[in-house]
Amino acid sequence: MFRNGINIGRRPLGKLAHAKHELPFVCNSCQHARAMASWHRQPGTRAKKKDKKPGVSPKRKELSMLEQVKQLEAHVQMMERSYAEKLRKQAAQKTIPKEDVTEEEKDLAYAALMAPPQRDAIFLPKPEPTEVVQSLPPIVQERLGGLELVAVQKPRWDVVLTQLLDNGGLAEMTTPEVNKLITCMDLEHRAHLSSSVLDMMKEGGVKPNTLTYDLFMLAHAEVGNNSQVKTLFGEMTQKGLSPTVYSYGHLLKAYSQEKNLVAASDAFQQMQLAGIEPNLVVYTSLIQTCINCKEFNTAWEVFNLIKFKSTSTAPDLSAYTLMIHACALTDEAERALDLFEDLTVRRGMEPTMEIYNAVIHACAVRKDFFPDAWRLAVKMQQQGLPFDIRLLNVLVQACGRTGHLTRARVMVRHMMDSGKEALQPDLFTYQNLMRAYATYSPPAKKGARQRELLSEEKQVLTQEEASFMPTTTDPQLVRREKNSMLGFNDDKIPFLDKPILLNPREVVDEAALIINWLRETRPEFIDTHMMNSYLDVCIAHDAFEDMKFTYENDMENEVNPFQAEKKAAERAAQREAKGISEEEERLLAAMDLAKFKRNVYTYDIAMSGAIKNRKLKFARQVWQDRLAFTRTPAYWMIPAEERKEMDFLAERDLIDALALGGYLGEAMERIRVLRDEAGVRWTWEDLRTVYVKAVELEDPEVRDYVREVTGRVPKPQLPELHSR
């Protein structure tokens, strides 16, 4: 039973801003024409007619500019028609059967090289069983003695190579025939067996060429063997083979995964010195490296370069996805929306699920762009693009940031009712749901105003949220979902039977119900981070006793291995006092729900709750628990700089708690010790609470000391001059 009387579980828990638009592609001749027109036009001629040169007709000038614009538009249309014709010819050329892998096929294969999030990028066509049989050279089929080993969905290529070794290996084969064999392998087997194939080629007298190394580098880059990619690239150059643009593409991808921008830049310069023209894939890989290294300005420079360079390097959907993803990392939702408009309106490209995921994520990280995130999600649904768990979690995360708890509850319910295993809520979903409880503000006004808010919220649920309803033909499920939208009468997740939570007590109660429900039914989703989120909910809604109860009864300190014997002796004494054996204690513990280990953030949250509610005794208890935590291995696993910063913040919180509790002398002593012995340089913001409390309690000693250590000593007053 909860403290508040609720029964569940076995353990209670107590405008779109104006942004700079990206410029469209303009060829060199057009740039020259525009520059000349700009040079002839005097500053201010558009805004100030009186500044125009005498004798020049304004109407004539305007017509001249319109003619130039029309010429530029005609030129751009001509270039687009030329490029479309080129694409048509390339498409027609692909229909001609060829024995070797063409350059065009490689270009298509590289299309998804670095697009976030990482997809199962297949750079060469994934062979079906029949294609594998048809692609295998006749000499390979002959030495296998049949097609049983390869005419399956997932061939065991290690077994295939063993069969080849028993029948002559790769001897008397040509390099193109071996390359065809390598192409038939899936990327995982190809990477795993690359050394074996190269050894077989050496034994059989077959010399690998550049394509051979490219195929192996491709596989290793895809599975993340970055060191092997660099090794193969070095072997290729040592043998005198000239790397291709694809070779450098694989190398750049390896550097991107290692977040090594310096090495990637060096490789890019080497490629240019070798006279190899970078293609879109290489530029995209370089952009990904910049983003991985958080060099966002450099990423934008590369992106703008490929936009203005030529039509062959014009950004594709993968490049746009990368840059929109970068906008999400830098909180530039305006720029993300500009890019989305650029690719959909100006370039007429059809946005993919990855594009929508990226732009919705960019809007979701900003509170002021929450409506845009929801609008784009509705638009995506209307276009028939499927939702995945990642996008749904982004929407729940947006609700958590903005405090839209009602929508978050609806989203979680829809995910559970979808009937699809891939859309079921996961740990990230429930963590963001808890955050929505913490940031939610219940309606403050009652009576008619509260009923009005309820009516408005129900209208939102029945209209805007309806687009997220899971599609089903089961009338009973549809009826249950409709009831869930308006009344939350579902038996899967213990939401309260209310469409909107009206007061803080209801918020805390429902959050507690969900935590206990997860502990009982989905323990894999409950961890220390989730419990910390619940503590935040309690503090945000002034439920100090619930927070304190959870901190003391559902969480415990990490075990100090150096005090294991002492703890064992204490437990033995406790068992003796209770009159139970060690086995009985173990059985009782198994019947109860396990406690969660506190981490450094647990103490920070609990201390903030103690300060907010002026609970000095509890603050001292939390401080002692934190001191014990500093003697455990978990504490020393925190990076040194982060540990130092968190220790200082904890000391500052304790000083605030002491000051608010009226213990100004003890607070001043801690300030002095930290200043004189630890070298802490106090600022006014650090000690503002102490100063305000000293003024309130009329303690001039503490007041003046705070002024002294923070450098806010008042200027000395000049003595008054009295006239005789």
Automatic annotation (TrEMBL):
Residues spanning the signal sequence: none
- PROSITE patterns membership: PPR
The source's domain of life comes to Eukaryota
Stretch list, region Disordered: 39-60
Q: Where are the PPR repeats?
A: 209-243, 244-278, 316-351, 388-422
Q: Name one GO molecular function term.
A: mRNA binding
Please give the coiled-coil regions recorded for this protein: none
Task: Identify the NCBIfam families for this entry.
Answer: PPR (TIGR00756)
For this entry, the protein name equals: Uncharacterized protein
Q: Which organism is it from?
A: Sphaerosporella brunnea
